[in-house]
Amino acid sequence: MIEWSTATPAISAAFLASVVEVVEAFTIVLVVATLRGWKPAVLGTGAALAALASVVVVMGPLLDQVPLNILQLTIGVLLLLFGIGWLRKASLRAGGVIPLHDEGAIFAKKTAELRDEVQRQRTSQDWIAGIAAFKAVLLEGLEVIFIVIAVGSGRGLLWPASLGALAACVVVLMIGAIAHRPLARVPENTLKFGVGVMLSAFGVFWTGEGLGIEWPGHDLALFVLAVLFLIAGLMSAQMLRQPLARNAQ
Amino acid sequence: MNILKDVLSELFSMFVADARLTASILAIVVVVALLIKWTSMPQLAGGLLLLLGCIAVLLSSIYREANRRRSPPEANE
What we know:
The structure holds 2 protein chains of 2 kinds. In chain A, 83% of the residues lie in helices and 0% in strands. By secondary structure, chain A is mostly helical. Chain A has one domain (4-240). The longest helix of chain A has 33 residues, at 4-36. Chain A is globular and about 60 Å long. Chain A starts with a helix and ends with a helix. Chain B is mainly alpha-helical. Chain B has a domain at 41-68. In chain B, 81% of the residues lie in helices and 0% in strands. Chain B contains 3 helices and no strands. The longest helix of chain B is centred in the last third of the chain and has 28 residues, at 43-70. Chain B is flat and about 50 Å long.
């Protein structure tokens, strides 16, 4: 029986994080399709999905062999490193310290890079384009797999978290197929901020459980942890914006 | 080999975006683990220390990076 107090944050974290990753992968696949047609884009994507599926098939049974507290501690620490890294970057972007992620600009830059690469190489141009799609989907897909395992494995929620990630893939691909251009209007930094908050909260929660800490309110403590990380992130972004506002006056 | 190198480098950068941030988080986890295991510190106090330590590390890392990027180029050399 699924406990929704844990399942809801796990599914939404997997969904939102996957939206960010799939949008990034979609931009590169679209670059490949625009330059060399859909054949290398689809072949590269298909090969990457097959590689990712084999990672899941190999990793899945191994996870069952790891004692729960060691799994929670390992995943918790990795989530802390990953989640706080995302929250840090999103806060710096929200505070105007580093530029916002611009899918349109990335599309233009990657198109120029791939065009140069294709012209420079003597091997099959479709092969190079296919490899670019393969790498993009593989790298972003590995992040999705990690997030699904991280938010889902501690409480046996791998399937619901996987469905959250799958739903993100379907939504992004449907919108991408209709729009047929980089999804620049996705609020990438807001999503990254939200996911960073959730992953950091999961990180503290699982690390604590792995160390034997019993959180008051059990799974509901996740919401409190998330609120505290949210406040910290928002406050730091707000304080970073103040010097900019003063300089503008 | 290039693909494998890129994958490994991406995996590494997933968790080590900033070396000092990574080292600080790991240090907090180790300190909390030692305090819980080797002292009579209540578990909940350990949890609170873990949470506050992580938030403090996050904030200090954000401000350090903001200062680094906003200071004149010669100050970063």
